[in-house]
Structure formats: C-alpha cells, structure tokens
Amino acid sequence: MEFDVITLFPHMFDPVFNCSVMGRAREKDLFKLRIYNLRDFTENRHKTVDDYPFGGGRGMVLKPDPIWNSVESICNNFKTEKSKIILMSPMGKVFNHTMAMELSQLDQMILICGHYEGVDERVREYLVDDEISIGDYILSGGELPAMVIIESIVRLIPGVLPEESVKTDSFYSSILSFPQYTRPGNFKGYEVPQVLISGHHEAVRKWRRTKAIERTLVCRPDLLNNLELTDEDKKIIVEINERQVLN
Ligand code: SAH
Question: Is the confidence at residue 139, as pLDDT, over 90?
Fold first, then answer.
C-alpha cells in the first residue's frame, strides 16, 4: 500500500511514522509513505499557497493550482490501478473501521490536507474522488486526520501486527474488545479475574467472548446489529439478560 500526502506541514508526519508500530512497518517496507510540501508545487515567486476568499470574509483559502499540480505530479510518477484521491474534509463521510477495511484494498491513496479556511471548492468538485472526515469537530488542518486514516489502514496490512491481535481488536467483527489485564495479579487490592489465571483455555475463551458481548451491549449496542451471532453468542446474551434480571 502506498500513501502520498499533500500538506503544508510535512514535518508533522515524522514523529508518528518513525516510531512504534508504524516505524517498524515502514522499515520492513510494508507500506510506503511519501509526503509532499504543497509549497513546492506553486508557480509564483513567493510560493504562495493561499489567498483571500472571493466575496470577502476572514481567513485564507488554499488555492486550487498548487493542489492540482501536486496531484498531477503524483499521478504521473506513481499512480497505480487501484488508487483514490481523497480530501480531508469536515463535510466528508465520517471515518470508521469499515471504511478502513475498504480502503486497505486499494494500492494507493493520495491524501490532500486542507488548512486555514479550507481548500478552493473546485478541488472538491473536480479533482478528488472522495472526502473523509474523522468526526464532527474542526481541526486546524487535514494532517491529523490523514495520520489517523493512514495509521488505521496500515494496522490492517498483513505482517504489520500479529493477525490474532488485529482480529480481536474492537470493531474488527462488530464487537468491542474483551478486557485485558497484566501483572501484578493484585494491584492495590484489585484482583485480576480468577478465570484468567486458571490455565483453562476454554474457560478463558468463553469468559472473553462473554465480556466482549457484555461491554458491547452496554457501550455500543448499535454494533451488535451487524454481528452475526453464533449459537454460543445467543446463549451468552440470554445468560447476560438473566443475570441483569436477577440483579
Ligand atoms: N472552514 C471549514 C473548516 C476548515 S478546517 C469548515 O467550516 O468546514 C481546515 C482543514 O482542516 C480542512 O480543509 C480539512 O482539510 C481539515 N479538517 C478540519 N477538521 C477536519 C475533520 N474533522 N476531518 C477531516 N479534516 C478536517
């Protein structure tokens, strides 16, 4: 998977993609990340990337020409078959795990980071394939959204993380993750559930499934609509409901 990011602040990406899971995946060449400074694609002497909005108003708008030039240059050099040009935008579709899974099937993503008041509308209308938002709030720029999107997709690339840990993460199969504990077994008098130190693998598996379903029912019941319940899951839900009635 290859990511081409167009931004006014290329250095923002260094810390995130040079350490931890992302840094290791990059070293192993499991994904490619190319960052472009929008200023390098200007055609004016002052390398101006923004201008005042037509019609008046406060704030600056990113000009269409440098963005167009940068996308064209990327497409000429690197465009692959399964590729998408995506604008980071508060009015885009709100990002989630399902979208991360879908996008992970592409070969390449070109991500455009807006800044200031945003980008000239013609970029939205005529250049990009999609717009993605990371939630209903406003950030100063598209850099953090782009990093969020790239990181969540890279985690899904085979080899980046152990398969089992990705599959038990929240949302992978429309269910939240089960609770995790580590040493010490007794911390300030709070004990780790006995079953986890019992050594009974089947009991641990059943406990984890029960807890995952239970916390999804409490915190995110909407997710369960998309979960294909096994016979065991249905029994677990009946047990949880009976327990609640008894309490
Ligand atoms: N004036 C615009 C906000 C511009 S914020 C408005 O009211 O809609 C500047 C840039 O930051 C945007 O162009 C976009 O690229 C990015 N951005 C801000 N919040 C975002 C969000 N929630 N999701 C994705 N991108 C966002």
Answer: yes
Kindly state which CATH superfamily the domain 2-163 is placed in.
SPOUT methyltransferase, trefoil knot domain (3.40.1280.10)
Residue 101 CB less than 6 A away from ligand 1: no
Mean predicted confidence (pLDDT) in 194-219: 97
Catalytically annotated residue among 40, 130, 151, 169? 169
8 Å CB contact between 103 and 79: no
**Is-above-0.90 flag for pTM?**
yes
155 is catalytic: yes
What kind of fold does domain 186-246 have according to CATH? Trp Operon Repressor; Chain A (1.10.1270)
- Average model confidence (pLDDT) for the chain? 96
